Amino acid sequence: MFENPTSEQAGLWAQVVALWDMAVRRDTQSIAAALHPDYSCWVTGTDNPHDVQAAIAAVGPSSPQIRRYDLKPLHVAIFDGVAGVAQYTYEAEVDTAAGGTQIITGRWTEMYLRKNGAWQMVSVSGGPDGQR
pTM of the full predicted structure? Predict the structure, then answer.
């Protein structure tokens, strides 16, 4: 992890990892609960931002299955104990339509709001490398 994280930073990073684990399991119920109702995301290479329903669909059964992933945290910041930002790079192995697997690398900046003691994702920006 990043150098000398505070307990708040470590807690937010644990939520980042938990969301990836939920995606691997395709646990759309837990993902829905982890996203703020007004969530908005803009993935690199797409024309428009998307909402909560699109985010849930992106990890559902009609999306490529994630086989494994590796996250490298670059920066985690907590603001006044209620807002947080996690920035990291990732590498993921996903299924392809042809029946094989593909390695995808990219980067995310994720924004969170602490609500009732839990981190809820409010927005994310980034995506696979090589897309504009």
Answer: 0.93
